[in-house]
Amino acid sequence: MDKGRPILLSIILLLSSALLVVRCQSDVTSLRQDAVALYYARVSNLTRIFSHEMSSQANRCIVDPKTDFNMAFNYSSNLEFLATCMESQGDVSLRLCTAAEIKLYLNNVFKKANSGSISSLISNRNCNFSTWLPGCEPGWACEIDPTVNVDLQNSEKIPSRTVSCQACCEGFFCPQGLTCMMPCPLGAYCPRAVLNRTTSICEPYQYQPPVGHPNHTCGGANIWADVDSSEEIFCAEGSYCPTTVDKEPCGSGYMDFFLP
Ligand SMILES: *[C@@H]1O[C@H](CO)[C@@H](O)[C@H](O)[C@H]1NC(C)=O
Ligand SMILES: *[C@@H]1O[C@H](CO)[C@@H](O)[C@H](O)[C@H]1NC(C)=O
Ligand SMILES: *[C@@H]1O[C@H](CO)[C@@H](O)[C@H](O)[C@H]1NC(C)=O
Ligand SMILES: *[C@@H]1O[C@H](CO)[C@@H](O)[C@H](O)[C@H]1NC(C)=O
Ligand SMILES: *[C@@H]1O[C@H](CO)[C@@H](O)[C@H](O)[C@H]1NC(C)=O
């Protein structure tokens, strides 16, 4: 009879700790949702800047920038990629490109598209002949010093972005020569790259990890718009990417509406 008590007690303890766990989980979940919402607001600001820059540089290609960009960048139905990125890298906004970085990137993309020449590197304060951080490599990015207040909308001055360099998150792309991340448009497929040991290529992209830096792994996507150099970044023909980190077999429609 006496034996029953400790068992009952443990059951009660177990139950109450289970309740505690449930409670903590829902707290964490709502905190997480708040944080995701905040970052999504920042990402939306970023894609608005992108949209603005893009339509001013690519006016001949984009018929209806507002609709196109809403279709390309309205991630509101699935923010899982953002939550996953936050979990591995913390304050994602320190890694998001500012207007100045986006402008530099798009200038380069359109210059290249117009001249048909091979990619020239984008020289800037973070990545140039005298300084080349790990985040300058394709598929990698760094953080802005968190004590510095950065204006995302500043389109003239590129911020110093040199700390905590890491591989680009899934669902984002990190071009060579810039140390920041941009979200991949919907319809693009931007998983983490995997090293093919035979070819030393970071697949499904076409870049190589830097020679002589064994600790530098393949990162994330390095491109989105200049598909000439890697067609894989868009969903393969006959598949449909409901988010930028999933690939589902399906019809077309999402393939290339967004190509410049
Ligand atoms: C988004 O941009 C607006 C100005 O265009 C600014 O007022 C707002 O604070 C920004 N939101 C975030 C979350 O950065
Ligand atoms: C994004 O899509 C959601 C529904 O899918 C819609 O409610 C929202 O207004 C859209 N956002 C913008 C900026 O158009
Ligand atoms: C190259 O990088 C260094 C270090 O950040 C910087 O001081 C210098 O201004 C950069 N040069 C150019 C041409 O951007
Ligand atoms: C690596 O690349 C080679 C040559 O393109 C290919 O045959 C092979 O299947 C790739 N390996 C993996 C693991 O994908
Ligand atoms: C590479 O990583 C190992 C283990 O983390 C470390 O001991 C080594 O110093 C690193 N090498 C370089 C060149 O950073």
From TrEMBL:
Signal listed as a keyword: yes
Q: Does the keyword Signal apply?
A: yes
Q: Which UniProt keywords apply?
A: Signal
Extent of the signal sequence: 1-24
- Write the protein's name: Uncharacterized protein
